[in-house]
Amino acid sequence: MVVKSLRDYIEQCFYIQESPHHLPTTPSSLQSLMSHPQPTPASSPDFQLIFTNALKAYEKRTKRDLLAHPLAAQLQDCDSPSAILAVIHQQLEGLHQSQRADERLTKWLDPTINILFAFSGALGEGVGLAFSPAKTIFAGVGVLLSAAIDVRASQEALIDVFERMENFFQRLEIYTEVPPTPEMIDIIVKIMIEVLSILGIATKEMKQGRTKKYLKKLIGRTDIEDALKKLDKLTTEEARMATAQTLKATHTVDDRVRGVDNRVAGVEDKVAGVDDRVAGVDDRVAGVDDKVAAVGNRVAAVDDKVAVVDDRVAGVDHRLGSVEARVASVDDKVKSVDEKVAVVIDGAQLSSVSQQENIFNPDVSRRKRGKASHTTDCKRHGSSKTFVILPLLKPALGVHTQASS
């Protein structure tokens, strides 16, 4: 179980023998922790209590409460690794160190802060801690650097410790983007507790030891070496778990890709079926097109017949024109006859008037008697013409032919 393993781990890290008197192996805080239900990794163990106990152990060792330290409040407002680095670098200004030492220390700070900040985000989102474990650790780094200001001889040894820690964190840098599992969160908590333990041990030694000879033994001390070995083991385990998680995610993606491939194959089959149906529709459309072509041919034949009828109508129209011309010619001839008839009528009217004048004028009658023979012939001819024409003109003129006869 996660909580049980962390409880044992805290006992090993913090409640160690620091003097002839041993620290209690089961303080009240740990008894409280042991009385809690022990959930599985997936049920969000009580990391808040675990870190609280770790901070109490740090306070016992260094006589400092990190949460109440001004650096903790200052770091709590930082929302990025660069902002945290700016605060930490302020603590470095008091160190009397060479340029090489400054470069070594900066080389350790950058990756360590980035990784711990990422881990803190994972813990904050996963278990909802009331404070940032990483920022608390950064406050411990600041306190340690402040303690090292007065002990110039210890600065090189301190940088050696930091560099060894930096080597451990480098192997985790590539895995900070891997979504953590409950097991990985368990390891992350152990790593942060181990870092806090190392900072506490180093800070305590800085405050107690003032001679160069004693400080040179810092790296060789069993407690520091044990803590560094544990940190090495934890970071290695975390890297392996992250690799396994990445491999698992890769296999999951591969399975999903295969599932998608199967679905695509099914879609391809359906598309092939649709293609077959479209081919059938195309065949039907081709049949309709043939029928339309046949109808077009029939329409063309009808059009030809209509053209023939149109030609015949044109011939009839031409013949009508000829008939019309003949009718016009007949009309002209009728007009000519009409004019001639009018002339004859006018002559007949003049002859009738002349006869009436002879009847009422005796002198004229006597003068004409001398020419009896000639006149008689003329009258005969004239009477003959009159008798021939007048009957034809009788209906139109209303002339009575009885008098002439």
What does this structure look like?
It is a single chain. With 405 residues, the protein is mainly alpha-helical. The protein has two domains: 256 residues, no CATH class; 82 residues, no CATH class. It is 79% helix and 0% strand. It is built from 13 helices and no strands. Helix 5 runs parallel beside helix 7. It is rod-shaped, with a radius of gyration of 68 Å. The N and C termini lie far apart (166 Å). The N terminus and C terminus are likely disordered. Pfam families: Goodbye. InterPro entries: Goodbye_dom. This is Fungal STAND N-terminal Goodbye domain-containing protein. It comes from Russula ochroleuca.
Overall, the morphology is rod-shaped
- What's the number of domains? 2
Proportion of residues in helical segments: over 70%
Average pLDDT, rounded to a whole number, is 67
Structural class: mainly alpha
How many E strands?
0
Kindly report the oligomeric state of this protein: single chain
Question: Kindly, what is the distance between the CA atoms of the first and last residues, rounded to a whole number of angstroms?
Answer: 166 Å
Percent range for β-strand residues: under 5%
| Succession of helices and strands | HHHHHHHHHHHHH
How big is the Rg? 68 Å
The residue ranges in which pLDDT falls below 50 over 5 or more consecutive positions are 1-7, 9-44, 210-216, 373-405
Total helical elements: 13
Largest sheet: none
Protein name: Fungal STAND N-terminal Goodbye domain-containing protein
Organism: Russula ochroleuca
